[in-house]
Design brief:
The protein is mainly β and 110 residues long. It has one helix at residues 103-108, and strands at 2-5, 8-16, 26-32, 38-44, 50-62, 65-75, 83-87. It is built from 1 helix and 7 strands, in the order βββββββα.
Length: 110
């Protein structure tokens, strides 16, 4: 489905939990159509209640890669209006062997 956030066209991707013990039942992810950057995520409980929302901003080139520089998370449950802000301060890149990302390696914690 097509939507707009801050006047920019975005596509919504609806992700549904595959397991009943997942922390969120559903995540609606909004992605900017032209830049393909994530813009917003909305997370829901298994009862369908809004749990959290996250906005992604300040995209930047970091070590030659496009990354989101700021993530702001807001709880829909807490009435205080508090938010958590994450900013990328630095990025260290390391070479990782593709064998480390097999299903078996992830299951056994290698």
């Amino acid at each position: 489905a097509s939507h707009a956030i801050d006047g920019e066209p975005v596509k919504m991707i609806k992700l549904v939990a595959a397991r009943a013990d997942a922390p969120y039942a559903r995540l609606d992810l909004y992605v900017n159509e032209s830049r393909l950057d994530p813009v917003k995520a909305v997370l829901y409980t298994f009862g369908g209640k809004l749990l959290k929302s996250a906005t992604f901003s300040e995209p930047a080139m970091i070590n030659g890669r496009r990354m989101i520089g700021k993530t702001t998370i807001r709880s829909a449950i807490e009435r205080s209006g508090s938010e958590t802000v994450f900013r990328i301060a630095s990025v260290n890149t390391i070479k990782v062997n593709s064998e480390q990302f097999t299903l078996h390696a992830l299951e056994v914690g290698q």
